[in-house]
Amino acid sequence: MQHSRCRAVFPRDTLTAEVLQQWKIPAFDLGNPMMDGLEPSGQGFQADHFQADHFQRGDYRLTCVLLPGSRVPEAYENWQTMLQAVAAVQKEFVSEKLLFLAAIAPSLDLGALHPMLESQGWQLLAPSPMPVLKQGTSTLVLTSAFNDCLHQADLAIAMSGTATEQFVGLGKPALILPGRGPQFTAKFAEAQTRLLGISVILVKSPTDMAREVQLLLQDATRLQWIRENGKRRMGKAGAAQRIADCLRQVLGNEAIHKGVK
User: Fold this and answer.
1) Of 65, 59, 126, 133, which Cα lies nearest the Cα of 97?
2) Which of 86, 116, 179, 261 is the most exposed place for a label (fewest CB within 10 A)?
3) In the CATH scheme, what is the code of domain 56-234?
4) CB atoms < 10 A from the CB of 89, how many?
5) pTM for this structure?
6) Tens of pLDDT along 69-125?
7) At what angle do helices 162-169 and 186-196 cross, to 10 degrees?
8) What is the rounded distance in angstroms from the CA atom of residue 132 to the CA atom of residue 140?
9) What b-and-e string marks burial along 171-207, b requiring 16 or more CB atoms within 10 Å of the CB?
């Protein structure tokens, strides 16, 4: 990056940009393209999508997005681990109405997820294209409406890379669980906590998830820090256009300096 031929560096976050600039590296803090294209499509998770006796979105005590990742077969193993964490949260909020939005990548087979849910006591109420299941006072939706899940959820239970970072970039907390890999291992999870700071809480065991969720929800100051930290770490949307504009300006100025049309 310090080479004379390096014209511009576009770090993913403000903190990195500030460090690079101290070394006189041409670093531009223009945001992270990863936060582009996350606008919600308008898909709601309301009673009319479920059964008549279901709850309206505003009646839920907590809405949690589940991010198992997209790689096969790792995502299926992650899913089993996450369902254990979900069960622990349900036990802690036993009398509360909970909504779990499972953001399932197109690369995953919904049919492979159903047996795991049934083994945990979930009952199918509505079939595809957006399967809805119920267990006690909890509702679980399997959906590919990724952006809408991120915007409507209060927190995430996650075992993914990019999706977790995008969720955090919206100013929300993600509780992550180490998996068997090959991607989302304990080492990867630990590195993610350093990358994203306070916005990510590493939970060592699924059975510990409920306690961590309770501690988080009871700490308003911590939640405010997370809102601020996430946006600072990941930046504002529109980075791709800002980077493109910057490249045109940098290369254009260089061409003018060299007398090239």
Assistant:
1) 59
2) 261
3) 3.40.50.2000
4) 25
5) 0.89
6) 999 999 999 999 999 999 999 999 999 999 999 999 999 998 899 899 999 999 999
7) 20
8) 6
9) bbbbbbbbbeeebbeeebbeebeebbbebbbebeebe
